[in-house]
Design goal:
InterPro entries: DUF397
Radius of gyration: 12 Å
Protein name: DUF397 domain-containing protein
Order of helices and strands: EEEEH
Organism: Streptomyces harbinensis
Strand order of the largest sheet: 1-2-3-4
Number of domains: 1
Helix content: 10-25%
Pfam family, one: DUF397
Largest sheet: 4 strands, antiparallel
Length: about 60
C-alpha cells in the first residue's frame, strides 16, 4: 500500500484517547490490513495485518 492511498481516507481516533494527544488513529475500509498513524503527527502510516490488529485489540480489552 502506498501512502498516497491514504490521502482521502477518514481517520478514526481511539475512543480511549484522552486530552493529552497521545493516541493513534486507524482507517477502515481496507481489505486485509488496518492503516495506523500517530494522531499528534499524522504523517506516514503503518499497515498492520487485520488479524494481528484484531488480536491486539482483543488483548487490550482483556488486560486493559
Amino acid at each position: 500500500m502506498k501512502q498516497s492511498d491514504l490521502n482521502a481516507v477518514i481517520w478514526q481516533r481511539s475512543s480511549y484517547s484522552s486530552g493529552n494527544g497521545q493516541c493513534v488513529e486507524v482507517a477502515q475500509g481496507f481489505t486485509g490490513v488496518v492503516p495506523v498513524r500517530d494522531s499528534k503527527h499524522p504523517g506516514p502510516a503503518i499497515t498492520v495485518r487485520a488479524g494481528a490488529w484484531d488480536a491486539f485489540i482483543a488483548h487490550l480489552k482483556a488486560h486493559g
